[in-house]
Amino acid sequence: MINDFFKKFLNKEAIIDKYGLKTNFNFSEEISKIYSQKTMSILSNKVLIKCTGDDAENFLNTQFTNDVKNMKNNSVMLSGYCNPKGRLISVLYIIQLDKEFYLYTTLDTFEPLLQKLNMYKMMSKVEFVIQKDILVGIAAKNENNSLINCVLNTKEAKKIDQSVVFKIDDNQIVLQTNPKEIESLLDIEDSSILGYKSFDFMDIDSIIPFINDSQVESYTPQMLSLDLLNGVSFSKGCYPGQEIVARTHYLGEAKKSLCKITFASKKEISINDKLETADDKKSAGEILNLVKINNEKYNSLAVLRKDMLNKNLTINGATVEIMEQVTKND
Question: Are residue 33 and residue 111 in the same domain, yes or no?
Answer without folding.
Answer: yes
